[in-house]
Amino acid sequence: MHALLPWLLALLLAPAAHGAPLPPAVGNALRAAGIAPQDIAIVVHGVDAGAPLLSHNARRAMNPASTIKLVTTYAGLELLGPAYRWKTEALSEAPPVAGRLAGNLYLRGSGDPKLTLEQFWLLLRQLRVRGVAEIGGDLVLDRSAFALPPHDPAEFDGEPLRPYNAGPDALLVNLKSVRLTLLPDPARNAVAVLAETPSDGLRLDNRLSLGQESCGDWREKLRATVDGETIQLAGGFPAACGEKALHLAPWPADAQVDRLFRALWNELGGTLRGTVRAGTAPVDAGVVAAQDSPPLAEIVRDINKYSNNVMARQLFLSLAAERPATPEGARRRVADWLAGKALQLPELVLDNGSGLSRTERISAAGLGDLLLAAWRSPVMPELMASLPLAGVDGTLKKRLGDSPAAGRAHLKTGYLEGVRALAGYVLDASGRRWVVVCLINGPRAQAGKPAMDALLRWVAER
């Protein structure tokens, strides 16, 4: 009898640990996927309700993957404001004379997450319009707005050339990436590779073969390696894919900016006599030209709709109250902000604010409470509009298109090895809005999509 007591006690406590019974369709999908009940956490809570409709493992600390971007973007919108802009400046110690800067030109970044190729070109064009044609000294890259530990782009998953593994940078230019276009050429039984991003000295070693199989996961069939200025592409590329863009982060930050600057500056008719190097602008240097970022309300759309990790890390660091900004300073600012809103998230662990982390944690209840607070916030329209719309755009464009949730669910998604997650708002058939959070951690997490979709259908059909 005594041997049975622990087993009986576990049965009695199970409902308290897991909460309300799961909807049958969700439970069936979990069983079919082999996902244990303790590996999933769910909260469904009406935005106008005092208590959740469904709460399962709600206080368990779990890895949220990219749904942690909701913390970063909501905090950014409230702390910095939807109209906040970053500024990138070009400075010199003396004005140009007859088109020539005798000394160095300094590029000083402030952490702009979206200093794209086009924005960078506009900054350089401003220099030309303002009379700078020749830079007699060096181009000095000033990243002093951030103070960061060394970053290893291969550390997370051994894929150092993937742009999502690029580290944050106070002078992040074009997301530290180059864009190559792959064009199948059946007539020549070959694949053409075009360098879309200007890059001085870039050489392409194209060893791709044209395949006849279905397109599928074409990116995994390619092998990219870098040797100095040369990018080598090998493997097969299916003709069925048609034209595809391949984004790579092939070089350290200084080298990438060097190659991009020289290519654009030459196109604009400019000359650089010196080298490109890291440094700091003198305190008495004057601004020659400046380029503002898009407003934060636009930035958060890119971060959430397309789950851009590098942009999220830039925003996260920009939350720090002091300069140079540090990850610890950003964490303190977020903690103070949450405390000021009386949001208690004891399970929250922030690493870099992007979700590309094995250490970040939050509970389903904590993420649900955050979304309920956001619903009552003045920045709610900006945050909600930044989330992928089921069956319409972003990371949900090809998901839930034939579901009752299509066009009615604004959800941030997340995916890592051993993690699947979604969180956001769902409008049901009667016009009522719900906060929905679903986190799966475990060896079978990759099979959790049908259970998540079943949960969304259950909410949307109410």
Overall description:
The protein is built from 11 helices and 19 strands. With 462 residues, it is of the alpha/beta class. The strands form 5 sheets. It has a 5-stranded antiparallel beta sheet with strand order 2-1-19-18-17, sandwiched between helices. Strands 15-7-5-3-16 form a 5-stranded mixed beta sheet, with helices on one face. Strands 4-6-14 form a 3-stranded parallel beta sheet, covered by helices on one side. It has 3 domains: 228 residues, Beta-lactamase; 109 residues, 3-Layer(bba) Sandwich (D-tyrosyl-trna(Tyr) Deacylase, Chain: A), CATH 3.50.80; 71 residues, no CATH class. Helix 3 packs across helix 7 and helix 4 packs across helix 5. The N terminus is likely disordered. The chain starts with a helix and ends with a helix.
